[in-house]
């Protein structure tokens, strides 16, 4: 695992000897964090978002069952797998842990080989699930996030914009005369154009929360959280020029093709009464205006 970013494990145990033992077993392969109380565990889980939590049950301020219930009832931590590592040996305690959502139950005193094997198994399952999820959220042709991923991201960023009172902007982008391009050069060349456009959109991303996505066909979107209209228009113009100047060789290499892009831009400081569909409709209307008034341009509804 030396060449990979280590997966993270949060160990929650108020006894130092237990933590030291677990840390010795797991630290060669994983990044380890410690919480000595249930309260601290809940704070750290939201802050570092570990890949796995090893959770003791008997703790002074809040027992492990209570911690697990709170983790599962909090959106940001609900999907983190939890393994109980506990000295409680009754079947009722083990059953209660599974009913609350634990993925495994290791009894103390534990053996290092058992702990390592159980942890490895659950983290391998997590890696496989993430690979499957990533494929389901990615457009296979362009490698960009697909509409499903975009919808989830805009919901999250919309809530954050309302909470933090920050602007959010969106560029709806459509390749001009794409059907004519396809009919002229063929569908394989059309695919090549879509891939070239995707590279331009990806290069325009400046921050981790910016998201370029293929929304369908030749339509793409670029979500720009914490960005006002002025900033969004600067990025839109950079994209428009890059697309206009781009030269896409034909599949057989005999010709060089060009294409342009129309962009509908919108920016908003959303409030609780504003909705995402209304926001996207504004962008779509501005895109329609850009198409109707000559293509290869940006419209934002501003004069």
Architecture overview:
By secondary structure, the protein is an alpha/beta fold. The chain folds into two domains: 8-136, Rossmann fold; 147-299, 2-Layer Sandwich (Alpha-Beta Plaits). The protein is built from ten helices and twelve strands. It has a five-stranded parallel sheet, with helices on both faces. Helix 3 (64-72) links the parallel strand 3 and strand 4. Helix 8 (187-204) packs antiparallel against helix 9 (229-245). The longest helix has 25 residues, at 112-136. The relative contact order is 0.09.
Tell me about the biggest sheet? 5 strands, parallel
Gyration radius, in Å: 25 Å
Write down the domain tally: 2
User: What is the architecture of the largest domain at the second tier of CATH?
Assistant: 2-Layer Sandwich
Work out the helicity level: 40-55%
Q: Which superfamily, in CATH terms, is the homologous superfamily of the largest domain?
A: Reverse transcriptase/Diguanylate cyclase domain
Helix tally equals 10
Mean pLDDT level: 92
Structural class: alpha/beta
Percent strand equals 15-25%
Q: Determine the N-to-C terminus distance.
A: 56 Å
């Amino acid at each position: 695992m030396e060449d990979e970013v280590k997966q993270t494990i949060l160990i929650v145990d108020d006894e130092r000897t237990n933590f030291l033992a677990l840390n010795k077993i797991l630290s060669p392969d994983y990044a380890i964090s410690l919480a000595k109380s249930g309260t601290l565990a809940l704070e750290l889980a939201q802050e570092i978002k570990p890949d796995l939590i090893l959770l003791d049950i008997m703790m002074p301020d809040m027992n492990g069952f209570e911690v697990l219930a709170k983790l599962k009832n909090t959106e940001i931590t609900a999907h983190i797998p939890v393994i109980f590592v506990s000295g409680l040996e009754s079947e009722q305690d083990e059953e209660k842990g599974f009913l609350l959502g634990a993925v495994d139950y290791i009894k103390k005193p534990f053996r290092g080989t058992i702990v390592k094997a159980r942890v490895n198994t659950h983290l391998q399952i997590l890696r496989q699930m993430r690979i499957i999820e990533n494929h389901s959220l990615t457009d296979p042709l362009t490698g960009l996030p697909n509409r499903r991923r975009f919808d989830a991201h805009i919901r999250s960023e919309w809530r954050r914009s309302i909470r933090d009172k920050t602007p959010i902007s969106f560029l709806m982008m459509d390749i001009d005369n794409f059907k004519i391009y396809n009919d002229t050069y063929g569908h394989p060349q059309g695919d090549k154009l879509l891939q070239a456009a995707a590279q331009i959109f990806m290069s325009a991303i400046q921050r981790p929360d910016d998201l370029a996505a293929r929304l369908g066909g030749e339509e793409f979107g670029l979500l720009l959280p914490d960005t006002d209209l002025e900033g969004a228009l600067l990025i839109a113009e950079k994209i428009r020029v890059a697309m206009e100047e781009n030269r896409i060789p034909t599949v057989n290499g005999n010709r060089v093709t060009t294409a342009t892009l129309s962009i509908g831009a919108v920016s908003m400081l959303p409030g609780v009464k504003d909705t995402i569909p209304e926001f996207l409709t504004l962008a779509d209307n501005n895109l329609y205006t850009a198409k109707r008034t000559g293509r290869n341009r940006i419209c934002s509804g501003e004069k």
